[in-house]
Design brief:
Oligomer: heterotrimer
Number of helices of chain B: 17
Distance between the termini of chain B: 33 Å
Helix content of chain B: 25-40%
Largest interface: B-C, 75 and 60 residues
Radius of gyration of chain B: 23 Å
Largest sheet of chain C: none
Distance between the termini of chain C: 50 Å
Chains: A mainly alpha (196), B alpha/beta (487), C mainly alpha (240)
Membrane topology (chain C): Multi-pass membrane protein
Protein name (chain C): Energy-coupling factor transporter transmembrane protein EcfT
Pfam families (chain C): CbiQ
Subcellular location (chain C): Membrane
Strand order of the largest sheet of chain B: 6-7-8-3-9-10
Shape of chain C: flat
Radius of gyration of chain C: 23 Å
Structural class of chain C: mainly alpha
Keywords (chain C): Cell membrane, Membrane, Transmembrane, Transmembrane helix
């Protein structure tokens, strides 16, 4: 069947749903760490690592262009519905499509492209963090009136602007590690069990 | 009319199991036909050819033609076939797509793009026909297995295909739900639909079927008129590996044993929570080293009893005493072990051997091997547990319980969906466990299993003990009253 | 015809009759403005309103427990800001300040999302998406996702029970803890998924013609009222 059509069929769409569901659940479990805000930078590392497991199994099931984009969109929509704002959806779309493009370049087979693809796709998580950086100036500006410029300057030094690209890199590395972990679990369990 | 012409099929990448060889079969309109045979004989495969899942979903090498009124089903896309063939599957938990029962009934019609008014009309009349108005507008996750299966049948019926295919539909059903299923098939028969049923449990079908096709190793071995099939003696049926059409005639091989002591359960009270039934038992005495069948209707509290016994319900303050030694909830977690209905949940590691080792307080390979050998699993010790067959997985779960020296084993529906031979294997395992001095509780609605091995029966209703008896001659009569007369 | 529609029962979770699209719009309104909106001026008026609004909705829907729980969370945040925060200096002040700041910005959106999810059935979501002309390629995965959340919950509960009985809940290496939980979960989800798609396909999912949807949703006066309420908030958002 898979050779018959390059387009996503109903069967594939159901698979997209199933794996996006489990991806989201595992992601959410990782997010629980984020209840303590100082861990938020860590989320970018932890969540993609955990999510590598469902993602790698997912890649054995569908292998068609559009799968990762759809996952990104659906993840974004879920976050939208749950009140995380529009930014996560935008990031979901952008990095979903990018991830898909990279994976397609490797025909959904090449290991290098898989590593890179999961790394890039994982950046959708930056949708959470980005809003803090994008609204950083207004946030601090609002503090000036009540706390004074000097105080706000000290605060700003704790969250330097260069943190933002660093978080991107951290998340990307998380995605790479996640793909490695996913691959290991795939070999150790899913292939032996005959479900991959 | 359905015509299968010279069909040969092999599943991709698999063994020969479930494949088909040289099948020629003509099913006229309006016939109710039973496909039977041992596991792996190809009856499920045959149903998948009719509903088009082979070759459009399950992959493999197929030759020959499946014709429906002259149209080749294998070449039709599945959404076209769906208009002619409706399917009901084995597992009630996995075949609903929506979450709301009303939407579920409408699902097939909605996919066909029928006009709204007509769908509403159909949903209403289907619900009326199957007497299930009370099930409309419910969250399907809140329904029991029997009710879910009823929804599955009704939703097929609502899209009104002329052919209905059922693949082991009663596997996960208790007796009263099986009765409902029989009534629904009856209605389809009256409507003149062609009904194809692949099934292991035969007793509920005997008044419905017109024809019986017996498969063996992928070939059609016998093709009976129903009348002739019903004349087969129980011994003949057993030789064919079939469960009986007539439960009462099934040979009783169970023996009551004098119990060496008793397990006292006290204060089994458990308040109603959303998913589970209430339990209200002050005291209960179970024979040690017995094989106790736990029977009762849906909602009787069988699984709640099992969960409380195993220490899984935090809020149950019950106490279990063995030889005067009391065990509290936490202690019971390592005293009892439950083999779950879906045994996939309780296998964690990458090899059968390791599965054994993590269960032991002091891992010792020789001890693990001894237990594996006893349960005929030694050859699989390097294999991934999930790659084993259903029965083997079940035995691995039992083996982990034995190796961790549990005194009480609880098995939740261990024979659902099993053919005669595999059912007997389970019975043999239970006897083996019993000889090792363990007590087993078997939650079951499988009459054949009970009379094959159980020593005692515990009958629950409404969270209370209805009756409790040893399976001697008098006990057998009571058991038959429950299973056979009450049908 | 109308009689037929009204007598066909659907699962219902809502108390105030609002269209899922309205609820979605309000959720987006609250989350966007609270998270990325400006402060000061007119927004000083809008923000407290938006913070209170989800709680009001929960109360109107008789979700007493949830409303109380979230209200208490708000109270704790304010109490922290007023009492503990001024006492701290340096890094600790920053950490707590950021925490409180982030929570007060994000919580209203989450509560609104909670209200949306807890008062809308999956059928209504699907109907809403189809009305908004969301392509089928997105509608199908989203409905599968909603179908699967309860399944994941059931399966995970069963796995946890199994772990308890095996006595492997005690702390081991984090890798093992992850493996024992995630691997069996994925195995059963993959299996259930396979059976589910087979069943869905035999019932004609994926046919090229347009699907019908018999789930009734639609805008009423209440919906218009809520839309009107949201307008000044958005005006403020773009001006400030």
């Amino acid at each position: 069947m898979e050779t018959k059509s390059k387009k996503l069929q109903a069967k594939d769409l159901i698979n997209v749903g199933i794996f996006t569901a489990i991806y989201f659940v595992i992601f959410f479990a990782g997010m629980m760490l984020g209840y303590i805000p100082i861990f938020i930078p860590l989320l970018g590392l932890v969540c993609p690592i955990l999510c590598g497991i469902p993602f790698m199994l997912y890649l054995t099931k569908v292998k068609k262009f559009g799968m990762v984009s759809l996952t990104g969109i659906v993840l974004g929509l879920l976050n939208l519905i749950m009140g995380s704002g529009v930014l996560v959806l935008i990031f979901g779309i952008i990095f979903g499509v990018l991830g898909d493009v990279i994976l397609r370049a490797g025909k959904y087979q090449s290991w290098k492209c898989t590593l890179l693809g999961n790394g890039v796709f994982s950046l959708w998580i930056m949708g959470y963090v980005s809003r803090m950086f994008l609204t950083r100036d207004t946030f601090f500006a609002s503090l000036v009136s009540s706390y004074g410029q000097e105080y706000v300057d000290t605060l700003m030094s704790y969250t330097p602007g260069w943190m933002y690209p660093v978080l991107f890199i951290v998340t990307f590395i998380g995605g790479i590690l996640g793909a490695l972990l996913g691959k290991a679990v795939l070999k150790k369990h899913f292939e032996k069990a005959g479900i991959a | 009319m359905i015509e299968l012409r010279n069909i040969n099929f092999r599943y991709a990448g698999g063994t020969d199991a479930g494949g088909l060889v040289n099948i020629d079969l003509i099913i006229p309109d309006g016939q109710v036909i039973l496909l039977c045979g041992q596991s792996g004989c190809g009856k499920t495969t045959l149903t998948r050819l009719v509903n088009g899942l082979i070759p459009n979903y399950y992959e493999g090498e197929l030759s020959g033609e499946v014709l429906l009124d002259g149209k080749n089903i294998s070449r039709l896309p599945l959404y076209e076939t769906a208009k002619y063939v409706g399917s009901v599957f084995q597992n009630p938990r996995t075949q609903f797509f929506t979450v709301d029962s009303t939407s579920e009934l409408a699902f097939g019609c909605e996919n066909q793009g029928l006009p709204e008014e007509e769908i509403i009309q159909r949903v209403k009349s289907t619900a009326e026909q199957f007497d299930m108005d009370n099930l409309l507008g419910k969250n399907i996750f809140s329904l029991s297995g029997g009710e879910k299966q009823k929804i599955a049948c009704a939703s097929v019926s609502a899209s009104n295909p002329p052919i209905i295919v059922l693949d082991e539909p009663s596997s996960n059903l208790d007796m009263s739900a099986t009765k409902d299923l029989r009534r629904m098939i009856q209605i389809w028969k009256q409507q003149g639909k062609t009904v194809i049923i692949a099934e292991h449990r035969l007793y509920y079908l005997k008044e419905l079927i017109d024809r019986v096709v017996y498969l063996k190793d992928g070939r059609i071995e016998k093709d009976y008129l129903a009348l002739d099939a019903l004349k087969l003696s129980v011994t003949q049926q057993a030789e064919m590996g079939l469960r009986p059409f007539d439960l009462g005639a099934f040979p009783v091989t169970a023996h009551p044993v004098a119990s060496s002591g008793s397990i006292e359960c006290e204060n089994f009270h458990f308040a109603y929570t959303k998913q589970r039934d209430a339990l209200d038992i002050d005291s209960l005495s179970l024979p040690q080293a017995g094989i106790i069948a736990v029977i009762g209707h849906n909602g009787a509290g069988k699984s709640t009893l099992a969960r409380c016994l195993c220490g899984l319900e935090k809020h149950c303050k019950c106490i279990v005493k063995i030889d005067e030694k009391p065990y509290n909830r936490k202690q019971r977690l390592s005293l009892c072990y439950m083999v779950m209905q879906d045994v996939n949940h309780q296998l964690f590691t990458e090899s059968t051997e390791e599965e054994m080792l993590i269960s032991m307080a002091e891992p010792a390979t020789d001890k693990a091997d001894a237990v594996l050998d006893r349960l005929d699993l030694l050859q699989f010790k390097e294999r991934h547990p999930m790659a084993l067959s259903g029965g083997q997985k079940q035995r691995v779960a039992i083996a982990t319980a034995l190796v961790s020296e549990r005194k009480i084993l609880v098995l939740d529906e261990p024979t659902s969906g099993l053919d005669l031979q595999h059912m007997k294997e389970v019975a043999d395992e239970l006897v083996t466990i019993q000889k090792m001095g363990k007590t087993s509780l078997v939650i079951t609605h499988d009459y054949e299993l009970i009379v094959s091995c159980c020593t005692h029966v515990l009958h629950l209703e409404h969270g209370m003990v209805q009756e409790q008896y040893a399976l001697d001659a008098a006990g057998l009569q009571r058991l038959q009253n429950f299973f056979i007369e009450s049908r | 015809m109308d009689a037929a529609v009204t007598t066909l029962k659907f699962e219902s979770k809502a108390v105030i009759p609002t269209d899922p699209r309205t609820k979605l719009f309000l959720t987006v309104t609250v989350s966007t403005i609270m998270i990325t909106g400006g402060t000061g001026g007119f927004m000083n008026l809008v923000r407290p309103c938006l913070m209170a609004c989800p709680i009001v909705f929960l109360l109107l829907s008789r979700k007493w427990v949830a409303a109380a729980r979230f209200a208490v969370t708000y109270a704790i945040l304010f109490a922290l800001e007023l009492t503990v925060l001024p006492l701290l200096t340096g890094t600790w002040n920053f950490i707590l300040g950021a925490a409180v700041g982030i929570y007060t910005h994000m919580l209203p959106g989450f509560i609104m999302g909670y209200y949306l999810v807890s008062t809308t059935t999956v059928s209504e979501f699907v109907a809403a998406m189809e009305r908004m002309h969301v392509p089928e390629k997105i509608v199908i995965p989203v409905s599968v996702v909603f179908r699967f959340f309860p399944t994941v919950k059931e399966e995970y509960a069963a796995i946890r029970d199994a772990m308890k009985m095996r006595g492997i809940t005690t702390l081991r290496s984090p890798m093992k803890m992850l493996e024992y939980r995630v691997v069996p979960l994925m195995m059963s989800i993959a299996k259930i998924g396979e059976e589910l798609s087979a069943a869905a396909l035999t019932r004609g999912l994926g046919a090229p013609q347009k699907r019908t949807n018999i789930c009734k949703i639609g805008f009423g006066p209440l919906d218009i009222f809520f839309f009107l309420l949201a307008i000044p908030c958005w005006v403020g958002f773009f001006i400030c």
